[in-house]
Every structure is written in C-alpha cells, then in structure tokens.
Amino acid sequence: PDLIGCYAQQDWDSTLVVITDVFRASATILSALYHGAIEVQPVATVEESLQHQNDPDYLVAAERNARRVEGATLGNDPEEYTRDRVEGKRVVLTTTNGTRALHLAQEAGAKHIAVGTFGNISCLSDYILREKFKSVLVVAAGWKGQLAGEDCLFAGALLHHIGERNVDAKGINDALLMAEISFQKYKDDLLSFINRVEHYARLEQLGYLPTIAVCLEQDRYPILPLFDLERQTLLPLQ
Ligand code: MLT
Predict the structure, then answer these.
(1) pTM of the model as a whole
(2) Which of 49, 78, 210, 214 is buried most, with the most CB atoms less than 10 Å from its CB?
(3) What ipTM does the predicted assembly reach?
(4) Cα four-point dihedral sign 208, 145, 34, 36
C-alpha cells in the first residue's frame, strides 16, 4: 500500500487512513480505550466537549496548546487515563491537532479511519496486512498545519514494521521515503531524533517530559481504535 499520501484521488473504499499524533493525542486515545473506556468521541471544539460536563456517563477531556482546558476533567496525557478513572465511561475529547486531523480525514471522504502510533504499531500492522487495504494513508497530524517530525517518523516506523516486501514500491512517495530514511537512521535511538523536534521543546517547557517515553513505547497499548462513521466515535476493534 501507499503509506504517506494525499487526499486527492483516493479510492476511499479500499484506503485505510491512519491518524497519527505521536505527541500525544494518539497515545491518549489508546490509553483511554485500553483502560476500559467504552468509546472516545472526538469533537472539534472545547464548547462541544464541555456540553457533557454534568453527564455522569461522560468524561470531558480537552487540550489546547498542550495544556488541559479549564473545566475539563482530563487533559491530553495518556498517563491520566487510568483504569479507575475511565473504565465504563465515554470520553469526549478535543485536542489542538489530533482530533482535528481526524475530522479533516472524514470531511475529505475517508471511510476507514484508524488511530495509530508506536503504542499500537503491531496491532495496526497486523490489521493492515489482514484486511488487505489497497492504500494506507498516514495522516501526520503535525502542529497547527506544520509538519511534526515525530509523526513522520512514525510513518517510517510503520513501513518498517509492515515490511517493505509487503508494500508496493511504486506507492512509496517522497514523503514516506524521507520518513523511512529517518526511521532507519534513528530506530535504535529514537530519542536522539525526537529531542530535536519542536514539540519536544514544548512538552519540556511544560514539564511533560516523562510523557515522551510513554508515547514512544512500542505496543504499550495493544488495541486498535477505529472510527465508527455512523456514531461518530472511536471504538476498539474487537
Ligand atoms: C494535539 O492534538 O495537538 C497534541 O496531542 C498536543 C499535545 O497535547 O501534546
């Protein structure tokens, strides 16, 4: 399959879109579902999330500029989503870039949308190979419209994990080629790449460095969130 591509001319019936926001929305979604949340409903605005503030079935999770939004119970740190907090709850989540990327994919016409990051790379790779998608489009969420190195690195890692022999070489575009070269170079010491990306500095400034290792740990949350178009929510693949 193609790995990083563009929205133009996709055959949405046979394309899996993988939303990746390595720091940190993807890991947060995985952690919530892995620890027993019933669903994660991604919403576009803080106002939409806060509408659920007084509903005991819901947990309001909202982040802007890497900080928890006032009035929300949870922010965007995967470690906050412990079993005792989230089990049996519906999480309604809005983040600066991650949930936005998901909505953009949907608006573009995507029919099959998954959330992927290092924490579920094996589950995701197995799913891609099993379901035989013709194309896989990795949406690297980035930061406010700018590329984020960590998201691209993950696209390279996914290609490595799936195994090049399983990917049509003609489908590897230049974006993926560069992502793959970066991953190959740094795969044994991801941190020496990661500590130079812009979002590392943001997280460091806010005192969130411990989250970096959590978000990079391979298969920490072996679960695959898939977006249910009808119910507009992320549910774990059963
Ligand atoms: C986002 O969605 O923009 C991010 O996950 C930012 C963060 O909270 O680190």
Answers:
(1) 0.95
(2) 49
(3) 0.92
(4) positive
